[in-house]
Amino acid sequence: MSALAKPSAPGLTDVDVERIRSEFPILKEQPHGKPLVFLDSAASSQKPIQVIDAMDDYYRRYHANIHRGVYHISELATEAYEEARETVARFIGARNVAECIYVRNATEGLNLLAYSWGRSNVKRGDVILLTEMEHHSNLVPWQVLAEQTGARLRFVPITDDGRLELRDLDRLLDGAKLFAFTAVSNTLGTINPVPQLAARARAAGALSVVDACQAVPRMPVDVREWDADFVAFSAHKMLGPTGVGILWGRKELLDAMPPFLTGGGMIGIVNYEHSTYADVPARFEAGTPAIAEAVGLGVAVRYLELVGMDRIHQYEQFLTDYALRQLSEIRNVKVYGPDIEHRSGVISMTVGDIHAHDLATILDRDGICVRAGHHCNQPLMEKLGVPATTRASFYLYNTVSEVDALITGIEKAKRIFKIA
Amino acid sequence: MTDPTFTGMDELYRDFILDHYRNPRNAGTIENADASFEDINPLCGDKIRMDLLIRDGVITDVKFKGRGCAISQASASLLTEDIKGKSLADIDKIGKEEVLANVGINISPARLKCAFLGLKVLKLALALATDADM
User: Fold this and answer.
1) B25: CATH
2) What is the CATH number of the domain that holds A395?
3) Which end of chain A has a smaller Cβ tally under 10 Å, C or N?
4) What's the average model confidence in pLDDT over A36-59?
């Protein structure tokens, strides 16, 4: 192992991180008798006790269906559900609370767009522009839309160091109705210049759709500064529960969109032949929603706000930088993606000829959780020329010693596989 | 099968597993094979194709081609060694237990699919080949 001095952490101090860690019950678990080293927050983050308690409290004290009952606990539930929406709206700088639609996760938000906006606005011959680094969730819904409407897909290519190649962006945007891109790559960690991309899309007459799953948890996000048209993200990657996410959209665009799912809760007047629909956001929230999950999301956001997104981002950059430096000292480790200036919290790598799943299995026996595979990004893996990579991702509860544990684990795997 | 002197990961990735991973036996393809099948394990993208020559109900040759983790590739390689020269009736009897015995290691539930991919491909190749092909 290299003899790099332990740097002191900007963003969060050791004391901050120790306090944060004490609030995540799962971090006391010991898989295979070893302390849990959770380096897979880009897939799904762990939850602080405040989120777990808030959801528990909802079920114990005031569970009832929302927007229906006139009795006290239903009013409490409705209030908590709507308060959480206000909290999220404030957190991402939405002008209007009604612009935040609860969905099941970012995937559902993107599908909602592809069905509702896409099927009313995209015609044969139109162009949908994507990038080569999109997660399957921001690729497959647009493929289906293109197949069903006769629209064409185009892709912004990536450079060798895993950044977007924007030289031909204007040509690619020519004729585009929509430009869908990720704010931060889940595989390479690349931070994309969202305001610039959204502005270029608008100038070309295309709407912009931002997959913000990896951005909202780990850096300050202001949808007004981004000036995009739609933004989708999932609660479970930002300390919240699974089963809820947010689709933010410009009010005037959402107002003009037909429903996606239909049924209870999204209607105006219903008769046997025909119905009118509720205003946004209710129009897009058919059926009984994930109430406890919305409450949990609200508390997760308040937790992040309390720590401070600037500090969380700084601390993640610090951990990522430290890990990149350590990894660069190990022979036969190849790291994919850009340098620290353009990268956030995610490191994808290969180690010699060790398959990602073998590496992940070896690390697992030491309690270290990493993602191994194609990261829902098969075309990008093809492009990188590898069947799979091993991905470590960091969050506010990770520590320098956990990065060290990862490094030790990689060196152990190399010994087992007899790699120099 | 398990050598008690091995513990933990050294046991999972014993020398012969690494040897079969890096130098797979019966690697390649067979043109005009009597039975062929290819499948992937979508969890990890492991891929195995197997080609078989069959004469009078006996496997006379087998080749496999694949990519993926050490467990999937080594277990497929071991399986090809095992089945060459065996009758279809004998192969019918090969089950998951034999594969695990061949590999000789404890495999966590999440990785069992890797170990069994070769066996699955073999069984499907034979199931899909008609009697006329053989």
Assistant:
1) 3.90.1010.10
2) 3.90.1150.10
3) C
4) 98
What are the pLDDT digits (tens) for A371-408? Answer: 998 877 888 888 888 878 999 999 999 999 999 999 99
For residues A158 and A270, membership in a common domain is answered with yes
Catalytic residue of the set A100, A213, A369, A376? A376
CA–CA separation, A225 and A223 (whole Å): 5
Q: What is the pLDDT of residues A87-96, one digit of tens each?
A: 999 999 999 9
- Interchain proximity B68–A417, CB inside 8 Å: no
pLDDT for the residue B4: 38
The answer to whether the Cβ–Cβ distance between A356 and B44 falls below 8 Å is yes
Q: B22 to chain A: which residues are within 8 Å by CB?
A: 353
CA A375 to chain B, closest CA, distance in angstroms equals: 10
| Cβ–Cβ contact B30 with A under 8 A | no
Nearest to A366 by CA among A1, A36, A44: A36
Residue contact A365–B18, C-beta within 8 A: no
The three state secondary structure string of chain A is: CCCCCCCCCCCCCHHHHHHHHHCCHHHHCCHHHCCCEECECCCCCCCCHHHHHHHHHHHHHHCCCCCCCCCHHHHHHHHHHHHHHHHHHHHCCCCCHHHEEEECCHHHHHHHHHHHHHHHHCCCCCEEEEECCCCHHHCHHHHHHHHHHCCEEEEECECCCCCECCCCHHHHHCCEEEEEEECECCCCCEECCHHHHHHHHHHCCCEEEEECCCCCCCCCCCHHHHCCCEEEEEHHHCCCCCCCEEEEECHHHHHCCCCCCCCCCCEEEECCCCEEECCCCHHHCCCCCCHHHHHHHHHHHHHHHHHCHHHHHHHHHHHHHHHHHHHHCCCCEEEECCCHHHECCEEEEEECCECHHHHHHHHHCCCEECEEECCCCHHHHHHHCCCCEEEEECCCCCCHHHHHHHHHHHHHHHHHCCCC
Q: Strands A100-103 and B46-55: what pairing?
A: unpaired
Look at residues A280, A306, A332 and tell me which one is the last residue of a structural domain.
Answer: A306
In a domain, B26, yes or no: yes
Name the minimum distance, in Å, from the CA of B100 to any CA of chain A: 17
Q: What is the DSSP letter of B127?
A: H
Q: Which of A34, A187, A354, A355 to mutate to test the interface with B (most CBs of B within 10 A)?
A: A355
Instruction: Assess whether A369 carries a catalytic annotation.
Output: no
Domain containing A222 equals: 52-306
- Whether the model clears a pTM of 0.90, i.e. scores above it, the answer is yes
Task: State whether A383 and A234 are in the same domain.
Answer: no
Cβ-Cβ pairs closer than 8 A, A with B, add up to 51
Tell me whether 0.90 is exceeded by the ipTM.
Answer: no
CA pair distance A166, A48, nearest whole angstrom? 39
Q: What is the pLDDT of residue B2?
A: 40
Instruction: List chain A residues with CB under 8 Å of B18.
Output: 417-418
Using the beta-carbon criterion (under 8 Å), do B68 and A412 form an inter-chain contact? no
Domain count, chain B: 1
